[in-house]
Specification:
The protein has 16 helices and 28 strands. It is about 30% helix and about 30% strand. The longest helix has 20 residues, at about 35-55. It is globular. A hairpin with a 5-residue loop joins strand 27 and strand 28 (about 530-535). The strands form nine sheets. Strands 3-12-13-21-16-15-14 form a seven-stranded mixed sheet. It has a five-stranded mixed sheet with strand order 25-24-26-27-28, sandwiched between helices. Strands 5-4-9 form a three-stranded antiparallel sheet.
C-alpha cells in the first residue's frame, strides 16, 4: 500500500497536482500548495459539495427518510474571531495534544504516535526491557530486528541475575499507557530515533496565536480558527433575522482552518493549514435523531456518487466511549488511504449530533458535565462562570407553534483536502495496453468522476497540416465558450498525447483527423474503456455536456 502511495505522490508532483510549500527553500512541514491541476480538482470537489448542500439541495433531498423540506444558506466567516469564542467553545482549554521531546536528538513526537514494545514478567506488570517505535504504514510495525535482539538480550541478562525459571512475555502498548506503568520499576522509554532520554509529556495547544492591532500583550492575543463551525454559530441569530429562514435549516461554509500539529504526516492528510467544508443544521430537538440519521446516510452517499465505493469506504458509528461529552451521536465516514496499514481507515468526514451544546455555550458560558451527566456552566474558584457566554438570547421562536427553544445541531464536517486526497488515491489506476508499435506497456491513468476531473476533454489535431490544427483549434474555442474545461495539444505522437491525458485523468479526447475533412466527424476516445467512436463535429459540445450532466 505504501508503494502505491509513493506512486501517487510522485504523479502529483510530476503532473502538477500538489507541491511542497516553499520547496525551493527546503519546504515547510505541514503546508502544501496545489498546482494547476490540483487547484482545479480541489475546486471541483468543493463545488460538488456546495451544489449538494446549497445549490441543488432540494432535488437531492429526495433520499428515502428525509423528514421534511428544509432551507439551506451559506456563509463566509472571518478566520480571526473574538478570543472569547474559543474559550467558551472549549478549544482554549481542551484543544491540545501531549508531546515529548528527545533531549539528545531534539526530535519531537506526539505521545499517541509512539508505541512501546515491552518485555515483562509473566503475570506481573513490571517491565524488564522496552523499545519504542513509530508504527510503519506499510508493515504495520516499526520494531526492527535490532530492537527485538536488544529485548532478548535484556531478558537474558535479567534471567541470568534472577533465575532462568522466570518467564517473560512481550506486550505492545501506547507510550501513555507505558508511562503509567513505568513507576512500577520498569526501564525508561527512550527516543524512537536515537534511544535518548525523553522529556515528560506536556500539553501543546494546537491553535495558532497571532496579535491583533498594536497591542503586543495579552490584550492583543487572538487565534487563527482551528475549525469553521464556530463562525456559523456566531451568525446564527443574524441569519435567522436577515434570511427569513425557518427551522429546520442549514448554514454551510467552506474555508481555511489552522492547527499547529506537533507531527504533521501522511502527505496532505494531516496538515497545519487545511480547508474544511462544514454545515450546521438547526432543527427541533424532537426531530433531531431523524435528521442525524438522514445527514449521516446522505453524506455517505455523496462520496459513493463521486467514486469512493467498495470496501475502501465505510460508515462507522462511534461507540459510547468515543463520543464527545456533549454529543448524542457521531458517525465517521472513513477511507482506506494507501498510507495506512491493511484494515485501517482514516477519517474523511464526521457527522455529529451536537444537541444544543454550541448555542447554549455561546449564550451561557463554557459547559461541562456535572455529576448527574447534565451540561452546566463551568465555575471558577470563586463560584463564577469560568468563561462567560455572550448573554445574547440565541433561542429560536416558532411563530406557528408559539414555541421558543434552543435548536439542536447536526454537523456534517468534511475536509476538502482529505476528500481531494481520497479522490486522488481512488482514481489512481494501472493496466496493460499496447503502445504505437503494439508492445504491451503499463498505462497509468486517473479514473476521476467526470465532474471532478480537472480537465474534461482534450482536443488533438492528428497531424500539423491539412487544416487539422485550424479545425481542432476552432472546436477547442467552442468548448471553452460553453464553459467546459478543456485543453489543446498538438505536440508528439497521438499515442503519447493520449497517455498524457490518461495520467491527469481527462475523461475524453477528441481527435481531428483526415476523415474530418470528408464527413465532418471526429474521433471520441474514452479514458476508461479506450473505446473510440465517430461523432459529428457539430455535436461535440452537446455530447460532452450531456455526458458531464449524466
Amino acid at each position: 500500500m505504501a508503494k502505491e502511495m509513493d506512486k501517487i505522490v510522485a504523479l502529483c508532483k510530476r503532473r502538477g497536482f500538489i507541491f511542497q510549500s516553499s520547496e525551493i527553500y527546503g519546504g515547510l512541514n505541514g503546508f502544501w500548495d496545489y498546482g494547476p491541476l490540483g487547484v482545479e480538482l480541489k475546486r471541483n470537489v468543493k463545488e460538488a459539495w456546495w451544489k449538494d448542500m446549497i445549490t441543488r439541495h432540494d432535488e437531492l433531498s429526495v433520499l428515502e427518510g428525509a423528514p421534511s423540506s428544509f432551507s439551506m444558506t451559506g456563509l463566509d466567516c472571518s478566520i480571526i474571531m473574538h478570543p472569547q469564542v474559543w474559550k467558551v467553545s472549549g478549544h482554549y482549554d481542551l484543544f491540545h495534544d501531549f508531546m515529548v521531546d528527545c533531549k539528545e536528538c531534539k526530535s519531537r513526537f506526539r505521545v499517541d504516535h509512539v508505541t512501546v514494545a515491552a518485555r515483562r514478567i509473566t503475570g506481573d506488570k513490571k517491565p524488564v526491557a522496552c523499545e519504542t517505535f513509530i508504527v510503519d504504514a506499510e508493515t504495520g510495525t516499526g520494531l526492527s530486528k535490532t530492537q527485538s535482539k536488544r529485548l532478548d538480550q535484556a531478558v537474558g541478562q535479567y534471567k541470568k541475575e534472577f533465575g532462568d525459571d522466570i518467564e517473560c512475555e512481550q506486550v505492545t502498548m501506547s507510550l501513555d499507557e507505558y508511562l503509567h506503568e513505568a513507576p512500577l520499576g520498569g526501564p525508561a522509554a527512550g527516543c524512537p530515533k536515537c534511544r535518548g532520554e525523553l522529556t515528560a509529556p506536556r500539553e501543546f495547544n494546537l491553535m495558532f496565536k497571532t496579535t491583533v492591532g498594536a497591542m503586543a500583550g495579552e490584550e492583543g492575543t487572538a487565534f487563527l480558527r482551528p475549525e469553521t463551525a464556530q463562525g456559523i454559530f456566531m451568525n446564527f441569530k443574524n441569519v435567522v433575522d436577515s434570511g427569513r429562514v425557518k427551522v429546520p435549516f442549514g448554514i454551510a461554509q467552506i474555508g481555511k482552518s489552522f492547527r499547529n500539529e506537533i507531527t504533521p504526516r501522511n502527505y496532505t492528510f494531516r496538515s497545519r493549514e487545511f480547508e474544511q467544508m462544514e454545515m450546521e443544521f438547526f432543527c427541533h430537538p424532537d426531530d433531531s435523531r431523524k435528521w442525524y440519521e438522514y445527514w449521516r446516510d446522505r453524506r455517505y452517499e455523496w462520496y459513493v456518487k463521486y467514486g469512493l465505493a467498495g470496501d475502501r469506504l465505510i460508515l462507522r458509528d462511534h461507540t459510547p466511549e468515543e463520543l464527545a461529552h456533549y454529543a448524542v451521536g457521531t458517525a465517521d465516514i472513513e477511507y482506506a488511504y494507501p498510507f495506512l496499514s491493511d484494515g485501517e481507515y482514516g477519517e474523511l468526514e464526521g457527522v455529529a449530533h451536537r444537541a444544543d451544546f454550541d448555542l447554549r455555550s455561546h449564550m451561557e458560558g463554557k459547559l461541562v458535565l456535572d455529576e448527574n451527566q447534565e451540561l452546566v456552566v463551568e465555575q471558577n474558584e470563586h463560584g463564577q462562570p469560568k468563561y462567560r457566554g455572550s448573554g445574547k438570547d440565541l433561542r429560536y421562536f416558532d411563530d406557528q407553534a408559539r414555541e421558543r427553544f434552543v435548536p439542536h445541531v447536526i454537523e456534517p464536517a468534511a475536509g476538502a483536502d482529505r476528500a481531494t486526497l481520497a479522490f486522488l488515491c481512488e482514481a489512481y489506476q494501472e493496466d496493460e495496453q499496447p503502445d504505437e508499435k503494439g508492445k504491451m506497456q503499463t498505462r497509468v491513468y486517473m479514473k476521476f468522476h467526470p465532474q471532478l476531473a480537472p480537465i474534461k476533454v482534450a482536443v488533438f489535431p492528428l497531424i500539423k497540416k491539412d487544416g487539422m490544427p485550424e479545425t481542432a483549434a476552432a472546436l477547442y474555442r467552442d468548448l471553452k465558450q460553453a464553459g467546459i474545461a478543456c485543453t489543446f495539444d498538438q505536440q508528439a505522437a497521438i499515442g503519447r498525447r493520449y497517455r498524457r491525458q490518461d495520467e491527469i485523468g481527462t475523461p475524453w479526447c477528441i481527435t481531428v483527423d483526415g476523415q474530418t475533412a470528408e464527413d465532418n466527424t471526429v474521433t471520441l476516445r474514452d479514458r476508461d474503456s479506450l473505446e473510440q467512436s465517430r461523432i459529428p463535429l457539430a455535436d461535440v459540445v452537446a455530447e460532452i455536456s450531456a455526458r458531464l450532466n449524466a
